[in-house]
Amino acid sequence: SQAEWEQLLTICSAFLFYGMERFVSHVSLNRLVAMNIPQCHLMILLDLVRSKESYQRITNSGIHKSCLRTAIESPTESAMLLSLVGVRSVVANQWYTTLRENAERLDVLSENLLSFGRTTGQIVHILQK
């Protein structure tokens, strides 16, 4: 629910979203922009997963969205929006991906953050290769 999203975002120091579609499409945009979440030092968005079913869902829901709303849901605009509400660092997919590719990214992120103690910048560099 929206209340659960808000509660999690306001109390966390790091937030991982691993899901289908776009992160911003799962939260109320009006409520998100009103939030102040400076305690969130890192937000990792492993979204933009697209399947045949999700593509149809996006197409159907996109009919009811304004051009501005659709533009705000893009990766760059989402990162800017999260930055404006206080998130200090955002790691996100730039292009659509598969579930398998995102699972591999999550493995690399987890292993490098937790086991090797690398910084997020070092991990992003590894993921770019």
From TrEMBL:
One of its GO terms (biological process) is cilium movement involved in cell motility. It comes from the Eukaryota. PANTHER family: CILIA- AND FLAGELLA-ASSOCIATED PROTEIN 46 (PTHR15977). This is CFA46 protein. The gene is Cfap46.
